[in-house]
Design goal:
75% of the residues lie in helices and 1% in strands. By secondary structure, the chain is mainly alpha-helical. The chain has two domains: 31-156 and 282-311, no CATH class; 179-264, no CATH class. Strands 1-2 form a two-stranded antiparallel ribbon.
């Protein structure tokens, strides 16, 4: 009795059973149209929810003290929203790809499950790549604009600072240099050339300015020299009427307080940098976790979508 020919993926098989098992389909197992559609949906949904989250974050924060959510609450909310965005956008894109993909005929159920999972992963990967490109382009434009504004501001501030330094130097040196400018680093050394053993009590602001430059140079150097200390003590004694030991004690106390203030400022700067580093590391870790969740959501939704699509005969 004549037997009917075998079929593999809808094509009649000829030859030996070995050749039947090696037969390949002429088309790809990937439905790129469905993958692209799901990726575009996932990207659009991701950006839409991201903008919504930014709006909610700005609405819940406030520059006024005691008003609005705290920085910790906003950070936790941002992490939760980042995970929610990945679940919704990647899941929606994967489900659409599963529903729109071509139905595979004469394919084992395990292979169908694997292909749906792969389609979901492709949707997530393509959507993440497009989203990263769009966000990077937007961030680059924003940074470029801020850099241009900052460069203009720095240029203006630099010009103003140069004018102020030149005017201050000319005022400190008087007319001895013909009215020309003087670099701030030379003012201290110039002052030492005109020191007197008997400071004038009528100098007033000029004496204070000179003492200020000596104190600034001492703080930058890390200590005050005996010559500077003796001279400043004489100036303080003449200006205030206190004795020499009291004036020297004031100098030591002032230098110590200034040094402590500089150390505290440095410590606060280091603590702020360390806090920023920890915050950046935590955000990067949660961003990685959210992307893993998004990949799982997309693959699972694609299998559900593909199973629903195949159930309709």
């Amino acid at each position: 009795m004549e037997t009917s020919p075998s079929y593999t993926a809808g094509v009649p098989a000829t030859g030996s059973p070995a050749s039947i098992g090696k037969r390949e389909s002429f088309g790809s197992a990937v439905s790129w149209g469905a993958v692209l559609a799901g990726a575009f949906v996932a990207t659009a949904t991701y950006l839409m929810l991201l903008v919504a989250g930014a709006g909610l974050g700005l609405a819940s924060s406030s520059p006024w003290s005691g008003d609005g959510a705290s920085a910790k609450a906003i950070g936790i909310g941002a992490i939760i929203w980042l995970v929610v965005i990945q679940i919704i956008s990647a899941g929606l894109g994967g489900y659409i790809a599963g529903r729109l993909r071509t139905k595979w005929v004469d394919v084992h159920s395990d292979e169908v499950f694997f292909r749906d999972t792969a389609h979901g992963f492709l949707v997530w990967a393509l959507g993440a790549t497009v989203s990263a490109f769009l966000m990077t382009a937007g961030a680059s434009s924003a940074i470029s604009g801020v850099a241009n504004v900052g460069a203009s501001a720095v240029s203006g501030a630099g010009a103003a600072a140069t004018s102020a330094v030149t005017a201050g130097a000319a005022s400190a040196a008087g007319n001895a240099n013909g009215g020309g400018g003087m670099m701030p680093s030379t003012q201290y050394f110039t002052d030492t050339l005109f020191r007197s053993d008997r400071p004038d009590a009528t100098q007033g602001d000029a004496a204070k300015a000179e003492v200020g430059r000596i104190v600034a140079a001492s703080i930058a150097r890390g200590n005050v020299t005996p010559e500077d200390k003796a001279y400043v003590a004489r100036v303080i004694s003449v200006q205030t009427g206190v004795d020499q030991p009291t004036a020297e004690k004031r100098i030591d106390d002032t230098i110590n307080r200034a040094r402590q203030a500089a150390d505290q400022a440095k410590q606060k700067a280091v603590e702020a940098a360390d806090a920023a580093r920890k915050a950046a590391a935590g955000f990067a870790l949660w961003a990685f976790i959210s992307m893993l969740i998004g990949a799982f959501s997309s693959t699972y939704a694609a299998t559900r979508g593909g199973r629903t699509r195949d159930s309709w005969q």
